[in-house]
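User: Run a structure prediction on this.
Assistant: Running it now.
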Amino acid sequence: MELKMTGEDVARKVNEMMPCHDLRFDGVQENIDGVIAYWQFTAYEGPVKGASMAVKSCDPDAVQVALENLIRKFKQGEIR
């Protein structure tokens, strides 16, 4: 039987892979855009401090990619 990671576990794992962002799990946002759920995370440190992101998968790799994309967009001036 496969054990799924909690949002807190995923945030902890992403923080190990990408230190200095203090990523925290906010909760599950249900029924957004007709999708069953998004997992919401917020960075409390780093270049995107205070920014939240919603991902469709509670998987460390998916959350890491979302955080990297958020940082890239910030550095390119696409978001402030």
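The CA atoms of residues 42 and 51 lie 6 Å apart.
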